[in-house]
Amino acid sequence: MGNGKRTWLNVSVLSIAFVVIIFFNGMLDGWNKQAKTDTVAWETGYGRLSHPLYDPYDPYTFSESHGIPPQAMQENITAGQAVPVLLTQASAYPGGRLINIILKGIDPAQTLLEIPSGVMDSLSPSIRGDAIPAVIGSRMSRSAGLETGDRMIIRWRDVNGVFDARDVVIAGIFHTNVPTVDVSQVWIPLETLQEITGMRGESTYLLLDKELAEKIEPASGAAYAGGWHYTNLDILMKDIEAVVEAKSGGMMVISGLLLCIALLAIFDTQVLSVFRRQKEIGTYIALGMTRSRVVTIFTIEGTIHALLAILLGFLWGIPLLGWVQKTGIPMPEMTDQAGLAVGDKIIPAYSMALILATVVLVFITSLIVSYLPARKISKMQPTEALKGKLV
């Protein structure tokens, strides 16, 4: 307390670093949790059983990656535990313009994914006519200039390599945080796509619900019946984990810089304290106090800065971070083009493990920084220290 304003300045700066570290990591954890939840709900389900030739990163494999699902999965498909999806490359002509798209077929009655496929069956015959009902995402709607009820021509190539074309009517437009089910994609009824491509009963992959995925989990990474490959949820989330890990590196640099600035102030205070209090230190040693005990006293004094900073951080950080968690962090519209599952706002997630880890980090680093200047005391001679001479 003898340092007065210097102490409270150090404590304030360190408390800011403490709260900012929790904020940045909470924002990343919240984004990670939100992205995974949305991806499971809109795109992946809890596992994927795919045709052996299917590669989601290579569109050129789409024309060959189709087949009849394994017989062992037919009962699960009927029960709604597995949702077959068939996809093929196609071209769309909205307003006379050419857009390359992925044409995807899905059962309108499915409930595993959040995609509103049911609206395809609810379209009235007067609006539908001879056209194929389809649903698209809001990004596809903006890029193609399409609204509900609009029509466009799509052209595809069937299993024999013959090109064909039909009218498609937009039965519904959905909004999602997952661009990989939206950008340049048109969803139509599965049976319709199987019929027009000559791939009756076939699909490219099956999406599984949680219960079914847990049953076949031991087969993860290996070929399933009929040569189909099972991909578990951890592998499906690998891209999101990689992005979050890359972003966390940048956040660690920013947090580290803030922490270093705060610790530098504590280090400076400790050096000044040792310099100004040499006579006091010499008196302690002359009265019989061991050097290690004097070092401990000065180390504890410096570490108290961290304890006060943590208490101050809780005092103003809890209301601030609670308000941010309640309102969320708005994201700019350009994030729609990033190809990642990012919502309109990110809700930070502050776990007890995160808070405790940050508390331990601040405390230990402050302890080390407080100890380093205090080591000089162990080299002091009591007679020289009593005279106030530097050693």
Q: What would you say this structure looks like, in words?
A:
- This protein is an alpha+beta fold and 391 residues long.
- It folds into two domains: 5-39 and 239-386, no CATH class; 83-202, no CATH class.
- Helix content is 48%, strand content 17%.
- It is built from twelve helices and eleven strands.
- The chain has helices at residues 5-44, 74-79, 125-128, 138-144, 190-197, 210-215, 233-236, 238-276, 278-286, 291-327, 352-374, 382-386, and strands at residues 47-50, 82-93, 99-106, 132-137, 151-157, 163-174, 185-189, 205-208, 229-232, 329-330, 345-346.
- Helix 1 (5-44) packs antiparallel against helix 11.
Quick summary:
The protein has 391 residues and is an alpha+beta fold. 48% of the residues lie in helices and 17% in strands. The protein has helices at residues 5-44, 74-79, 125-128, 138-144, 190-197, 210-215, 233-236, 238-276, 278-286, 291-327, 352-374, 382-386; strands at residues 47-50, 82-93, 99-106, 132-137, 151-157, 163-174, 185-189, 205-208, 229-232, 329-330, 345-346.
Keywords:
48% helix, 391 residues, two-stranded antiparallel sheet, 17% strand, alpha+beta, 12 helices, 2 domains
The total count of helices amounts to 12
Mean pLDDT across every amino acid position: 85
Q: Main β-sheet, in a few words?
A: 9 strands, mixed
Structural class: alpha+beta
Number of domains: 2
Write the layout of secondary structure elements.
Elements: H1 5-44, E1 47-50, H2 74-79, E2 82-93, E3 99-106, H3 125-128, E4 132-137, H4 138-144, E5 151-157, E6 163-174, E7 185-189, H5 190-197, E8 205-208, H6 210-215, E9 229-232, H7 233-236, H8 238-276, H9 278-286, H10 291-327, E10 329-330, E11 345-346, H11 352-374, H12 382-386
Parallel strand pairs: 3-7, 4-6
Antiparallel strand pairs: 1-8, 1-9, 2-3, 2-5, 2-8, 5-6, 10-11
Helix pairs in contact: 1-8, 1-10, 1-11, 8-11, 10-11
